[in-house]
Write a structure and sequence with these properties.
The protein is of the alpha+beta class and about 250 residues long. It is built from 6 helices and 10 strands; from the N terminus they run H-H-H-E-E-E-E-E-E-H-E-E-H-E-E-H. About 30% of the residues lie in helices and about 15% in strands. The protein is globular, with a radius of gyration of 19 Å.
């Protein structure tokens, strides 16, 4: 069995200093996040339906917050022509790009929201991008959120999960092929002739040869998030652990 992949920092990249500053800025996003979105009149039994309709709005607001945090990640104004732009349906869905369209984006962030009180008790996001489209400095970021008053109010963000996207792609395939207890075909078909910053519509996803359960790419399934999810389930939401809220909602949902 080959050695398991390990996360690595792009220390040889010419913009490594910027990469470190952006990563730090991501962890400060929750304390600076603002949104005009507000939810009222939600039934407790409908709480689990929140993630899909609000995810895009929250992700857009996170991108705006990152741009507002420019003094954190670009304190010397070396990257004034660059800003974060969200481009849904592409990978990565957030790109740090210049106003000059002739310049390739500098780096990317695959950004996903996670409603912390979802009944799955883990993100259901599937990350299937092949390793060839991931720069070593691209990041995968999952941002958990709750409503300020649990059943009402505005979305509030919590500590994000931040890892190199390339590592996540390699770890996903390694888990599928070497760490699962499965007697079925563990092969993975990887697309050819792909590179970072693919165009919309390009085929960039790895596909498992046998995935009857539809679990290939489930980020929370291959161990990469265990050390993150477990503490988040104990995170206080209005004075009560998140896992206790989830149990309450499950007990009273249809």
């Amino acid at each position: 069995m080959p050695d398991a992949p390990r996360p690595a920092e792009p220390s040889n990249w010419e913009h490594y200093w910027l990469w470190n500053r952006i990563r730090r800025a991501l962890f400060s996003v929750p304390s600076h996040f603002t949104t005009s979105t507000s939810i009222e009149g939600l039934l407790a039994t409908d709480i689990f339906t929140l993630n899909a309709p609000l995810a895009a709005t929250i992700e857009e607001s996170v991108v705006q917050t990152l741009n507002d945090l420019r003094p954190v990640w670009d304190p010397e104004s070396k990257y004034q022509t660059y800003s974060f732009v969200r481009q849904p349906q592409t990978f990565p869905d957030v790109r740090l790009q210049s106003v000059d369209n002739g310049i390739e984006p500098l780096m990317g962030i695959e950004l996903k929201g996670w409603y912390l009180l979802s009944k799955e008790e883990a993100p259901t996001y599937r990350f299937t991008a092949t390793r060839a489209v991931c720069n070593p400095w691209d990041l995968l970021v999952v941002v958990p959120w709750v409503l300020s008053n649990v059943l009402a109010g505005s979305p509030m963000l919590m500590r994000p999960f931040v890892r190199p996207a390339l590592y996540c792609a390699e770890k996903r395939n390694y888990y599928w092929q070497h760490e699962r207890n499965s007697t079925s075909d563990t092969g993975i078909a990887e697309p050819d002739n792909v590179s970072p910053f693919p165009a919309k519509g390009d085929r960039i996803s790895d596909k498992a040869n046998n995935d009857s359960g539809g679990n290939f790419g489930r980020l929370a399934r291959y161990g990469i998030m265990n050390d993150y999810i477990n503490p988040m389930m104990n995170e206080s939401v209005r004075g009560i652990p998140a896992k206790s809220w989830i149990k309450f909602f499950k007990d009273h949902s249809n």
